[in-house]
Design a protein that fits this description.
single chain, 578 residues, alpha+beta, 8-stranded mixed beta sheet
Length: 578
């Protein structure tokens, strides 16, 4: 009887402890800190809270051993293994025999179909913002409908790997049929869909690698939800005679120089499938140098003693740069001598600015604000007009510089090969014209505000110095940017390219003539001069010719503040000399 009573008491105690544990268990599971019924923060925001950002990621530790070699390779045995383990966590690979045979077949068939469709192009990029150069590698981007990838001053527009709706969003319907309706051949559309299917397989494989290689060392691992693939086609040294040698370590000629991949989500992984093809080049030598991938610590101070690693990879290898590896490491591709190389590099593009969905919704929101009925006090309406005008000008700059000019500078062949983007580009041009018309109307309002014969009281009531300043600053900055684009378009590199690959004109940016009642001129300098003249008259009228700043009334508030600050600095400097 006593034993039975004791068991009952123990059971009650366990039940009580379990009840007390429930809230604590919920608290532990709710690592985001959000209320139970509230939406969970995104992985990106949780990573930032827990692990910081790419910029705040520390360098890997210095290697604990020493070597006289300029770089290490797997043939160096324990030295290589030790250095990789201590300083290159996240760099790993799967040998071809560990992958499903169907994966190799699908990748190779897709590469062939994409090449036959002509989708691989050489890019005219601007390293360091200086003179243009053409990439040694030809490449194409495939990904979620409307995605792009920006690098070295150039935005690459992706080919969609799934079906799209009337608004060019992704749908779940038959991908091949949808893509052929856009203008892709059946073979090309099938290859695009195949890359998406393979991308899903690589996501799963990367997740397993993250759990094995990274999860034991960090509190929260980054994303492997790949949204696009940058596929490269690289020729060997026997065909590509102008490849540049690696000057830092003497590894050989490189197809892709040392770099970190840009435009990616912080802590996101990269998976690369690497495939080689024999060439029939009669000039090929008997020496068969293999293709290699090399990695190094990205120490800007050049003080690291950790040697780089150089790894020859067999055709069909799948290698990874996991989690934060891309934050503080760089990689390069050392060219082989006889074989052609394809690489499909699957990435998590940074969320936000680089998608059609993003720019489309931004245009709709800004244009929606400008069409709202004017209500409220006069002061509120003035502020609202200034805010709306600023948003308009910022959006015009973004459409022009990040989308339209990026599209037209890549040539007619590029446009022909990207049928998905025809409708979005046309829509962006229409919105640009609509924003331009709104700007013309605002300028007319400013002109009317300082006219001796005011037609209405609206101009006088809604116009403010802030409104003048927004337009003056926007037009000056836009003119500077247009000058930069003009210099870029005049780069001698384009004269060496085929006519179909040279930049071509935009009907809204490169007008031969324009309607001053609806359009802005291409050269905005005279317009800025007029706006400053209107501003001076407006201030003079408002102050009735008086005011201490009347002589600077053609300057914006920011410019006057800069002049005042410079004057105070000069006075302080003179005082110190005395």
């Amino acid at each position: 009887m006593g034993g039975s009573k004791q068991k009952k008491n123990n059971k009650q105690k366990r039940k009580k402890l379990m009840e007390e544990e429930k809230p604590n268990k919920k608290k532990r599971n709710n690592i985001s800190g959000a209320a139970p019924n509230q939406p969970q923060p995104s992985l990106a925001s949780r990573l930032k809270k827990v692990r910081g950002t790419a910029d705040s990621t520390p360098l890997p530790p210095e290697w604990s051993r020493n070597t006289s070699k300029s770089f290490l390779s797997p043939s160096d045995g324990s030295l290589f293994d030790s250095c990789k383990r201590e300083c290159y966590r996240g760099f790993c690979w799967e040998d071809p025999h560990k992958l499903p045979p169907t994966l190799h077949v699908q990748f190779d068939q897709a590469f062939d179909a994409l090449y036959e469709a002509g989708l691989f192009l050489h890019d005219a990029v601007q390293p360091g913002g200086k003179r243009l150069s053409r990439t040694f590698v030809s490449r194409t981007v495939i990904g979620n409908p409307g995605s792009t990838y920006r690098y070295l001053g150039l935005r690459l527009f992706s080919h969609p790997w799934s079906s799209t709706s009337n608004e060019n969003d992704s749908t779940t319907t038959d991908g091949i049929q949808s893509l052929t309706s856009l203008g892709y051949t059946h073979e090309c559309a099938s290859a695009l869909v195949t890359i998406r299917i393979l991308n899903e397989q690589l996501k799963k494989r990367t997740q397993h690698m993250l759990q094995d290689e990274i999860a034991p060392h960090v509190e929260l691992v980054g994303s492997a939800d790949y949204s696009l693939s940058l596929i490269n086609r690289m020729e060997p040294t026997s065909l590509k005679k102008d490849l540049k040698p690696d000057k830092d370590y003497g590894m050989g000629k490189t197809s892709v120089s040392w770099h970190k991949d840009s435009g990616l989500a912080d802590f996101s992984s990269i998976a690369v499938y690497h495939s080689l093809r024999d060439t029939t080049n009669e000039e090929s030598s008997d020496v068969r140098n293999p293709w290699k991938v090399a990695v190094r610590v990205a120490d800007t101070t050049k003080q690291t003693t950790t040697p780089p690693l150089s790894v020859p990879l067999a055709s069909g290898t799948l290698y990874y740069l996991l989690d934060d590896f891309n934050h503080k490491h760089e990689h390069t591709v050392v060219a082989g001598s006889n074989q052609l190389r394809y690489s499909s590099t699957h990435r998590v593009a940074r969320e936000g600015r680089g998608t059609w969905h993003y720019i489309r919704e931004k245009c709709r929101n800004v244009l929606g604000v400008t069409k709202e009925n004017e209500q409220g006090s006069l002061s509120e309406r003035r502020k609202r007009l200034v805010k709306a005008t600023r948003l308009q000008q910022q959006l015009m700059d973004e459409i022009e510089n990040e989308w339209l000019r990026q599209w037209y500078i890549q040539g007619k062949l590029h446009a022909k090969l990207h049928p998905y983007w025809h409708k979005p580009i046309q829509q962006l041009e229409e919105w640009f014209v609509e924003l331009e018309l709104g700007t013309v109307k605002t300028i007319e309002l400013l002109q009317e505000s300082c006219s001796k014969k005011k037609q209405t009281s609206q101009a006088e009531s809604l116009v403010s110095q802030d409104l003048f300043d927004v337009l003056i600053e926007a037009m000056e900055e836009r003119q500077k940017t247009r000058t930069t684009w003009l210099e870029r378009l005049e780069d001698p590199l384009f004269a060496t390219m085929d006519e179909m690959e040279q930049p071509f004109s935009s009907k809204v940016l490169d007008r031969v003539s324009f309607d001053a009642t609806r359009n802005l001129p291409e050269n905005l300098t005279p317009l800025v001069a007029n706006l400053r003249k209107y501003r001076r008259k407006f201030v003079k009228h408002a102050q009735k010719g008086h005011g201490s700043n009347a002589q600077y009334s053609n300057l914006t508030k920011r410019e006057r503040k800069t002049i005042a600050s410079n004057w105070e600095s000069m006075k302080a400097s003179f005082g110190n000399k005395k």
